[in-house]
Amino acid sequence: MRVLLSAYDSRGGVEPLVGLAVRLRELGAEVRVCAPPDEEFSGRLAGVGVEMVPTGQSVRDLVTGKTPPTAGGVPRRAAELTAAFYDKVTATAPGCDVLVATGILPAAAGVRAAAEKLGTRYVYASYQPVSLPSPHHPPIPRPGRPLPPDVTDHQALWERDAQDVQDVFGEAINTHRASVGLPPLDAIRDHVFTDRPWLASDPTLAPWQRPTDLDVVQTGAWVLPDERPLPADLEKFLDAGEPPVYVGFGSIPMRDPGDVARATVEAIRARGRRAVLSRGWADLALVDDQDDCFVVGEANHQALFRRVAAVVHHGGAGTTTTATWAGAPQVVVPQGGDQPYFASRVGELGIGAAHDGPTPAVESLSAALGVALAPGTRVRAAAVAGAFRTDGAAVAARLLTT
């Protein structure tokens, strides 16, 4: 059995493929992963013995502005991504039994086209329900395409979303399809998603509501126990006092990282707590030389989140899933995309608080921390963690190999 997994995404979108790849190999499958050429992705996959096929440009360079803007803007980037994933998959996947696509739509469109050309089974997977059309929720606003405030019918909004996808990506994707001998599409989004997409999220944290037109297969989140030890200096800091509050925004490049660090540290100190700051792509740093704060780079979040009093983060699917699994109370400071959804779920489940707005201020963050640090919130977070399904990657692996 040969399986090719693919994602053009940040760390939170690549990490689930690590878990799925390991479970597939345990069932005897040969697995490769097409992912961006960032060193942190290749290093993580190499650490579990899975071959990575570098595809496309560095996501970190693109997100943080180190990659110069492309002439032609978004449509041009979409064309490049579609072609890059089509070329790499068709070169890598002959003889593969199944192709799995996650991540942004133009890259997945390239994988879908490769599957058509090769005659190979194709599965599209999302890490959050709100990316998939449903009468129970509106679509996530696409960049430059805000949802009209006067339209509240979810079906009408999803029809508009389909047209937005066609308007933004249609020419680029259909031009590529024509160049490889495939017919044009007038419903690109639905073609890429298929009528039976998979949902790789925990049913308690991010459930799929029925009925819908889609026959969604919810496998559970694709998580893998991480046995890597924490850095020795971080262990020393954790052992030196009461559990600190973790702050990290993952792959989100905050506009004013210095101001964000100062506001979060002051809010945490106002609650009588120490702080662990994760550098992340925002490049957070210490605000002074006091010994109640520690800055960490790459670290095992599963182990770290079990040692902290609360987790302050952006609300990406990966971080929210890990914090929920760890039983850590959360404060979500959503920046966009699926993050407002996860912020609302954290509040609805009673496992933390959603910060009001994307910019943390001392007063607003301190108020949210008051909710997260309340004893009842930790009790509730532990209960939800106890219900968390850890077999999602194994479920998906079995579905792929049978």
Structural class determined from secondary elements: alpha/beta
User: Uncertain runs with pLDDT below 50, 5 residues or more?
Assistant: none
Shape: globular
By DSSP, the count of extended strands is 13
DSSP helical segment count: 15
Helix content: 40-55%
Estimated radius of gyration:
21 Å
**Strand order within the widest beta sheet:** 3-2-1-4-5-6-7
How many strands, which pairing sense, and closed or not: the largest β-sheet?
7 strands, parallel
User: What's the N-to-C terminus distance?
Assistant: 10 Å
Portion of residues in beta strands equals: 5-15%
Order of helices and strands: EHEHEHHEHEHHEEHEHEEHEHEHEHHH
Mean pLDDT: 96
Description:
44% of the residues lie in helices and 13% in strands. With 402 residues, the chain is of the alpha/beta class. Helix 1 (11-26) packs parallel to helix 2, helix 4 (73-92) packs parallel to helix 5 (105-118) and helix 9 crosses helix 13 (362-372). The protein is globular, with a radius of gyration of 21 Å. The protein starts with a strand and ends with a helix. The model has no long low-confidence stretch (mean pLDDT 96).
